[in-house]
Amino acid sequence: MRKKHPLRHAVLATVSTVSGIVLLLALKPTTDPSSAEAGTPTSAITSDADASPSPSASPLSPSPSASPSKAPEKKSTPSSSRTSASPSHPVSAAPAKTSSAPSAPKTTSAAPTTRSVTGATAQTKYGPVQVRITLTGSRITGATAVQYPDEAARSKDISSTAIPKLNQETLEAQSADIDTVSGATYTSAGYKQSLQSALDRAGV
């Protein structure tokens, strides 16, 4: 082998490189080989590993700032304590009594009574005339002649025509102020006289 052969230089360079690595591993046993091959500086790893914990970071040494500071207690004033301690009683308004006045009793009006009143007998030229009326309350609801001239045939005929007319007029007039029936003047006069007597007796 010649002295200046290129292969010789390569072998020498390789041997010197391996020797350097072995020397580094012998001097720095704590160095991670993977980090050394990756080119990580060993000085940083050594400084981190050899660094001793600082006394200030020791958890056993009490820190002045960690000492509990006693804050002055806030005294409560008696007025506020009495105000809060006093129970609040809600004042409820008394229920208003709504008493309705008793309604007045319904007055049922009594049904009007029906009565019959007979007037006095009126004497006429052709015979007596007497009228009877029926009243419901103060209203005339019926009128009839209980006596009228009927002895003679002529008087009987006149009375059979005049008396029904006088009865009807009494109901319409509600009084003794009725018209005289033509052809029965004496009978009409006696009828009105007896009718007025019956109304007087009834108090109408």
Summarize the structure in short.
The chain is an alpha+beta fold. It is 41% helix and 13% strand.
Polypeptide structure, described:
This protein has 204 residues and is an alpha+beta fold. Helices cover 41% and strands 13% of the residues. The protein contains 6 helices and 4 strands. Strands 1, 2, 3 and 4 form a 4-stranded antiparallel β-sheet that branches. The longest helix has 22 residues, at 6-27. The radius of gyration is 75 Å and the shape is rod-shaped. 15% of the residues are buried. The model is unreliable at 35-72 and 76-87 (pLDDT under 50).
Question: What attributes does this structure have?
Answer:
204 residues, single chain, rod-shaped, 41% helix, 13% strand, 4 strands
Structural category? alpha+beta
Bin the helical content. Answer: 40-55%
Please report the distance between the alpha carbons of the first and last residues: 182 Å
Strand content: 5-15%
Computed over alpha carbons, the radius of gyration is 75 Å
The counted number of beta strands is 4
Counting DSSP H or I runs of 4 or more residues, the number of helices is 6
| Overall average residue pLDDT | 73
Low-confidence stretches: 35-72, 76-87
- Major sheet characteristics: 4 strands, antiparallel
- State the shape: rod-shaped
Note the run of SSEs as H and E. Answer: HHHHEEEEHH
